[in-house]
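Bug #77: duplicate submission created two jobs. Keeping one. Sequence:
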Amino acid sequence: MILKDTTLLQSQCYVNGSWVDGEENKTFEVKNPFDQSVIQSVSDFNVNDTRKAILAAEIAQKEWKKTTAGERSIRLRKWFDLMIENKEDLGKILTLEQGKPLQEAIGEIVYGASFVEWFAEEAKRTYGDVIPGHQADKRIVTIKQPVGVVAAITPWNFPNAMITRKVAPALAAGCSIIVKPAKYTPLSALALGVLAERAGIPKGVFNVITSSRTSEIGDELTSNSIVRKLSFTGSTVVGKQLIKACADTVKKVSMELGGNAPFIVFADADIDQAVEGAIASKYRNAGQTCVCSNRFFVHQDVYQTFTSKLKKAVANLKLGNGMEDGVQIGPLIDESAVQFVEGVVDDAVKKGGEIDLGGKRSDENNQIYLPTILSNLTKEMDVYTEEIFGPVIPIFEFSTEEEVIDMANDTPYGLAAYFYGKDYQLVWRVAEALEYGMVGINTGMISTTVAPFGGIKESGFGKEGSKYGIDEYLEMKYMCFG
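Kept job's structure:
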């Protein structure tokens, strides 16, 4: 790997301001999903190692919460500056361990850094209130204080941004944090630890623990009473387990879970814009994002036009190694991910669906699944109910607004939704009728630092980013002065 700064590639965990191995000195390999080559071996923490990290975070938090908002802001701003200065190296590390195209990876670094910049500023805005008293001799004041030690469990699909989106508001609020990144992508998290150390974030305030023993570490983070807040991004199945596990110690939790996003094209839509939005939404990171469009509903009057233009555009996407110039679709994260996508497509075909494009692995690389378009589909197929997490577009035809709203909401998930149309009355009706936490209207890209990111129903609860994001790491205290 050609890095300008080779010290960003670490193999040890970052705990209490030091780079350490686990007590058993065990390691696990991090592989490039494109060719399965080993990038690095990293420390494999156990439960006892994790417990030590939690204790270190507890000690550090007692001092960190005493710092002024301005002091915390300065450290976070320095961390942001270092991320931007090193965005190319951070992007290369991300691409090698995750597989997404390099320019997309660098884009994630900039996006991830934006949360650090944003919450460096929001640290100074955690206002309380003075409330008119209920009696003449009473004065009522509310203040916001840090919740305490935070644990964050982050996914492999955005190994940088899903960390900064949690760590930045936690640190800004005065909390210390332990991050457990996905076993597939720990190197991006460790690189953030290097830069946090350079930025002067005190020892024990930001900790990164890597482990292949995901379930055991999760049990410790959820059961340990020192940890007062858990933030998780991942599947709904795992999220439900973590919520249950946190109940015994009544932790504050926020969950960003699975999705089944509809993408609706109405008869009056700008078809060229809709095609562009579909590709941006569906094929980013080879379809491996929680807000990817999952089910496409196209009005019967524009069905042929839309699908024809979409097929032409998708056929021109460049596949390959994310480190190569111009590549737009890289590998899926591992063999099981490819097999899952294959299973979903095979199910559709067995039940009468048709493959209009793709529908198999690339001949050049077994980990790349070809961008795929499916038609002649029904609600009984897995593509209607499952979160595909791959580069597959299943297209359903509809005739009325009521019909498509019913189909779009026919899922336990409620993270993101998208639709294209020009009639402003229809736009308002549909936007309000869709049961989702986020709605993209005439756009396929909705993620931004300044807006609240989060879902409803079984897609979770809690918001990340925006002015609301820091509240997830604060407790409100009411004081009555007699």
